[in-house]
Design a protein that fits this description.
Methane Monooxygenase Hydroxylase, Chain G, domain 1, 4 helices, mainly alpha
Length: 221
């Protein structure tokens, strides 16, 4: 009786399992050809199929478990009978085994098929998530490379601006000291160009050093 009930459950599951197989094949093909843009929709479809498979497994698990336990009990009792041949009469154990074993095997095969489907859909989901993770890491790496390139460009621009600033300040200081020298010469100061240059060099260098230190300090902040 128990075996007959399980057999009806297994036969009722057969069309669903065929549908699950076809859906799994379709999802596998989509996973092989899908881009990252469609990964979310594909993941939702995989999760939906997984829920259906798990639901069918949960509904039939107790029936198949009961069939296994019942079959084990029946075969143990048949073994305890220790039947012997009696003419051309078929033994009771042989009669029961020939009619009951196919049912037990069919139920076991159906249960195993459900387990394999559940494992396959879980592996497919893990594979998709791993692929999406790799794509995200590649995108993040590309963003980091872009940011590094921008940072390098900004550093080069900043150095160029600093160099131009130093050149401009140097030019301004030279002109300023030329004006000072011209003013002193007009006032009657007896200074040669060489003496004026030697006198102006230390202040110019000191001012340039202070400017460079301030630029470096501002850059570090």
């Amino acid at each position: 009786m128990n075996g007959s009930l399980s057999l009806s459950v297994a036969k009722a599951l057969d069309p669903q399992l065929n549908e699950f197989d076809r859906s799994l094949v379709t999802l596998s093909e989509r996973n092989a050809n899908a881009s990252g843009v469609h990964a979310k929709a594909l993941l939702e479809d995989i999760a939906q199929l997984s829920r259906r498979i798990v639901g069918s497994s949960v509904k039939s698990r107790h029936r198949f478990s009961a069939t296994r336990a019942y079959a084990q009990l029946v075969f143990e009792r048949l073994a305890e009978l220790r039947e012997s041949h009696l003419g051309d009469c078929q033994r009771l154990g042989v009669f029961i085994e020939r009619r009951f074993k196919p049912t037990v095997r069919y139920c076991a095969a159906t249960e195993q098929r459900l387990e394999q489907l559940a494992m396959s859909i879980a592996n497919l989901g893990d594979l998709l998530q791993a692929r999406v993770q790799v794509e995200m890491e590649d995108q993040n790496a590309e963003i980091l490379r872009s940011l590094n390139a921008r940072a390098d460009a900004q550093v080069k621009i900043q150095r160029a601006v600093e160099g131009l600033s130093i050149i401009a300040i140097t030019y301004y200081l030279i002109n300023l000291f030329k004006l000072v020298y011209s003013g002193l010469h007009t006032l009657g100061a007896d200074l040669s160009a060489r003496e004026a240059l030697l006198g102006m060099a230390p202040p110019v260098l000191l001012i340039m050093l202070l400017i460079m230190l301030r630029i470096r300090k501002a850059k570090n902040h």
